[in-house]
Structure prediction request, 86 residues.
Amino acid sequence: MKLFYVYLLRSRKDGNWYTGYTNDLKKRLLEHNQGLNPSTKNRRPLELIYYEACLHRNDAKAREKYLKSGMGKRYLKNRLKSYLSS
Prediction:
């Protein structure tokens, strides 16, 4: 069974977040930290702080879009409340 992951990275350099989706989470995180993604190249190092798994690509894309919205960002801040306060 192939899974699709929606993930949230935090830059250790500036503290900003990056949200994306992939079907290979380990490979994608490695690509981000190697500077192969223009969106995060100058924000390295990055750490994975949250992910969700979906069975269908379109569900992962829709979830990524939601998490990038204002309501989605509020959801993540609430969901990661303990992590963010530590």
Summary: The chain has one domain: 4-85.
